[in-house]
Specification:
Elements lengths: L5 E2 L9 E3 L5 E3 L2 E10 L4 E11 L2 E11 L5 E6 L3 E16 L3 E16 L1 H9 L8 E9 L3 E5 L7 E6 L4 E6 L4 E17 L2 E15 L6 E11 L5 E12 L6 E5 L4 H7 L10 H18 L4 H10 L4 E5 L2 H7 L13 H4 L3 E9 L3 E11 L2 H5 L7 E2 L2 E12 L4 E6 L12 E6 L5
Parallel strand pairs: 9-10, 9-11
Antiparallel strand pairs: 1-2, 2-4, 3-4, 4-5, 5-6, 6-8, 7-8, 8-9, 10-13, 11-12, 12-14, 13-14, 14-15, 15-16, 16-17, 17-18, 19-20, 20-21, 21-23, 22-23, 23-24, 24-25
Length: 434
């Protein structure tokens, strides 16, 4: 009964495993151990191993590793192809010999993030292979809840969003023929897209993987938005739309609600010169751009994770200028002589949260806060949700997955007089893959 064995895998596992005493059985030319329990603080694994000998030299080893039911283990890996951290469950069969290495089975990943370094895959196939024994890989990967996809890097992602796949993603690799494939599709919910120096909030999207050794450029569709105020102080929703374009070279369509000329949109986003070239105007544009960069660098990422776990949410995201407004104060306001209020501090703040109920129902809420001029409020007959001079614009949604299409009900409550009839929408959507 061997005991006191410690198992470590510093390149892939974030924990140290210990094992219960187990029996090694010798029969003829084989040594075997069955259902060995391996324990960590996060979860348990069971492993069975058989080693085959040729005289006194082992020539093949078969290993089966499975997580205990409803358990998972913490994984943390970083290499030239991908980086990932999260909870993993698995059911894998592995075979090792001098002739070949085979790994096959199922795995699940949740409560974490992953980044794929697309450029490294093409470099891999430009170089000769130096592994003596061919490697065969066939894994079905199930992406669970609270999985964040970041591209192109973890430190400074252009795209950061929660990803969920209804069907497992299949990964195959054959080093003897130098062939690789990654196939599957997933939905993107919540997150951010960094484009033309601004961070757009991701409302919906999808990503389709049909990659091989010749091309690695997934197709992406997404709709993201950012809210700004025009020169008359009216809110403008700027929308970034992409339909079935390569992730590494997408060219989005940018439009607004209400409609604005493209030049006006670029001015709102700080990408075109305006008539106001004063110090305050330049500072205001610089701070807005810098705030989005700070968000992409993960300044609020720890706070988002803490709130998400505390409220038992699947998705929680914040986009805000609160810190910049507090630091720079009145110098970035349109009227430097005006007193700073709660509306000034939380101007242009967006909070998004989502929760899955089972696998077929998803509820989400987007709350946008912006500064609202009291004089405008007094001269307007519209009833709006205002606290002091902070305008509150909520959007609520509910999605149902059916066998034929996705149903989404949404409401943006603004028209109190008509009981929100004109603020309600129902959307049916579906996608074919082949």
């Amino acid at each position: 009964y061997p005991s006191g064995i410690v198992v470590r895998s510093p390149d892939y596992a974030a924990e140290v495993f210990t094992q219960e005493p187990f029996v090694i059985r010798a029969e003829g030319k084989t040594l075997s151990a069955r259902d060995v329990r391996v324990t960590s603080s996060e979860g348990d694994l069971t492993a069975s191993c058989t080693a085959y000998f040729d005289r006194w030299i082992p020539n093949r080893c078969e290993l089966s590793v499975r997580t205990v039911e409803d358990d998972s283990v913490l994984a943390a890996t970083e290499n030239e192809y991908f980086k990932a951290e999260g909870s993993v469950d698995c059911d894998l069969d592995m075979s090792f010999s001098r002739e070949e290495i085979r790994i096959a089975g199922n795995a699940g990943f949740e409560n974490g993030f992953f980044t794929i370094i697309f450029s490294e895959f093409s470099k891999q196939y430009e170089q000769p292979q130096s592994i003596s024994a061919p490697v065969y890989l066939d894994i079905s990967l199930d992406l669970g809840k609270k999985v964040e996809f970041r591209w192109p890097t973890d430190d400074f992602p252009i795209l950061r969003g929660l990803i969920q796949a209804d069907e497992p993603v299949r990964i195959t690799y054959d080093s003897s023929t130098n062939r690789f494939s990654l196939k599957g599709q997933a939905q993107l919910k919540g997150g951010e897209v960094f484009y033309i120096k601004r961070s757009f909030y991701l409302r919906q999207g999808s990503i389709v993987f049909n990659e091989n050794q010749d091309i690695f450029d997934p197709l992406i569709s997404m709709r993201a938005e950012i809210r700004e105020m025009d020169e008359e102080g009216e809110p403008v929703r700027i929308i970034l739309s992409v339909e079935n374009q390569g992730l590494t070279s997408f060219t989005p369509l940018i439009y607004s609600e209400p409609p604005k000329a493209y030049a006006d949109l670029m001015t709102l986003l700080g990408q075109a010169a305006s008539g106001d070239s004063s110090r305050d105007s330049i500072l205001r544009t610089t701070v807005i751009t810098a705030s989005d960069i700070l968000a992409q660098m993960g300044f609020f990422r720890g706070t988002e994770s803490w709130i998400r776990d505390m409220l038992h949410l699947d998705i929680f995201s914040i986009r805000t200028l609160l810190l910049q407004n507090a630091i720079f104060g009145q110098s970035i306001q349109a009227n430097p002589d005006a007193k700073m209020t709660v509306g000034n501090y939380f101007d242009n703040t967006t909070v998004y949260m989502g929760k899955y109920f089972g696998s077929a129902v998803y509820a989400d809420a987007l709350m946008h806060f912006s500064y609202y001029d009291q004089k405008t409020a007094e001269n307007s007959d519209d009833k709006k949700t205002i606290y002091g001079n902070l305008l509150f614009q909520p959007e609520l949604g509910l999605e149902f997955t059916t066998p034929f299409f996705l149903v989404r009900w949404g409401i943006s409550p603004e028209s109190y007089d008509t009981f929100f009839v004109g603020d309600t929408s129902i959307t049916l959507s579906w996608k074919f893959s082949y």
